């Protein structure tokens, strides 16, 4: 229940395509391919935790039944990304005959966008030469990082971030199976904390359930260590009223006492900007400043200094209005 094909325990491991939530159109198209017992090379692109690895496992189990382990090779390209791995491990598996009724084996390359350009060039030749004995399923976050010759050889499926109703389905299934109680307010925070990532949602649930079978809003907030909107609102209200000192003190208090990172504070500020009682034009300017601050933090600048600079922008904006 951690990542990749293991985001489900055996109790929840899907056996039907309907078990993948939030990707109905993809399931419909992939399901029809699998039912014909013949699939092309597949490229799954989209954010983390949206069902790419799980769907690959479902495809393989549906095709090969009890022989799936003998006909399936899974590699994480972020760990094994060199040309040598492609030439040896992948090629050796691809050139051998499959066991069972399906005439081809399947290789799943997770995080394929981490493959070096040289490895991708070697992979394109293997995909072409061994297409009769092997099919490839490639998973990536950004399809633009996959070279065009590989993309042209694959059927591309773009996964979308899961909506609240999809995450709720997962939480309802787990709460029923594990006999845990999830308060509605806690479910809301779990969804916001997961940001549409099913894997992150399950990890949050697992962490909170290990503390108490009754999952509350306060417990989830403690586990995910995110800045509370009401605290961020106080910081921004002080800044817009022109009180830079109190705003700065409150910000420091949030970051130190609750161990909130600078980037997490930035995300909370960005969300809270749109709830401020100021003109839309001012909200746009403040959002732009927030983006600049996040960029500097990501590039290595001191988070607290950059956040103080952002608060100064809010103070000047409050004075200007």
How would you explain this protein's 3D organization?
- There is one protein chain.
- The protein has helices at 24-35, 52-64, 83-94, 117-129, 148-152, 164-178, 184-194, 198-209, 217-224, 229-240, 244-257, 262-273, 280-298, 303-320, and strands at 41-45, 72-76, 105-110, 134-140, 154-158, 181-182, 214-215.
- The chain has 321 residues and is α/β, with parallel strands linked by helices.
- The chain folds into three domains: 4-158, Rossmann fold (3-Layer(aba) Sandwich); 164-224, Helicase, Ruva Protein, domain 3, CATH 1.10.8; 229-320, Up-down Bundle (Zinc Finger, Delta Prime, domain 3), CATH 1.20.272.
- Helix 10 (229-240) packs across helix 14.
- Mean pLDDT is 85; it is low at 1-15.
- 55% of the residues lie in helices and 10% in strands.
Question: What labels describe this entry?
Answer:
alpha/beta; Rossmann fold; Helicase, Ruva Protein, domain 3; Zinc Finger, Delta Prime, domain 3; five-stranded parallel β-sheet; two-stranded parallel sheet; 14 helices; 7 strands; 55% helix; disordered N terminus
């Amino acid at each position: 229940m951690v990542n990749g094909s293991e985001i489900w325990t055996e109790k929840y491991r899907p056996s039907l395509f309907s078990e993948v939530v939030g990707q109905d159109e993809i399931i419909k198209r992939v399901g029809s391919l699998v039912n014909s017992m013949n699939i092309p090379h597949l490229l799954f692109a989209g954010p983390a935790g949206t069902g790419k690895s799980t769907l690959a496992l479902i495809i393989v189990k549906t095709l090969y039944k009890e022989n799936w382990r003998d006909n399936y090779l899974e590699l994480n390209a972020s760990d094994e990304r060199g040309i040598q791995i492609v030439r040896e491990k992948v090629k050796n598996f691809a050139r051998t005959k499959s066991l069972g009724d399906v005439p081809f084996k399947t290789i799943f390359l997770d995080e394929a966008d981490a493959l070096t350009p040289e490895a991708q060039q070697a992979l394109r030749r293997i995909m072409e030469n061994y297409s009769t004995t092997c099919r490839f399923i490639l998973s990536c976050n950004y399809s633009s990082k996959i070279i065009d010759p590989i993309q042209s050889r694959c059927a591309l499926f773009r996964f979308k971030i899961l909506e609240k109703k999809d995450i709720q389905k997962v939480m309802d299934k787990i709460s029923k199976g594990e006999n845990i109680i999830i308060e509605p307010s806690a479910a809301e925070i779990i969804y916001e904390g997961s940001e549409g990532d099913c894997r992150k949602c399950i990890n949050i649930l697992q962490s909170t359930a290990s503390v108490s079978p009754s999952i509350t809003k306060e417990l989830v907030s403690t586990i995910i260590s995110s800045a509370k909107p009401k605290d961020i609102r106080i910081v921004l209200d002080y800044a817009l009223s022109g009180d830079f000192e109190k705003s700065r003190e409150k910000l420091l208090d949030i970051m130190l006492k609750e161990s909130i990172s600078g980037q997490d504070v930035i995300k909370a500020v960005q969300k809270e900007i749109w709830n401020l009682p100021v003109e839309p034009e001012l909200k746009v300017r403040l959002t732009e400043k927030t983006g600049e601050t996040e960029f500097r933090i990501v590039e290595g600048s001191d988070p607290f200094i950059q956040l103080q600079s952002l608060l100064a922008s809010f103070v000047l904006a409050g004075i200007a209005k």
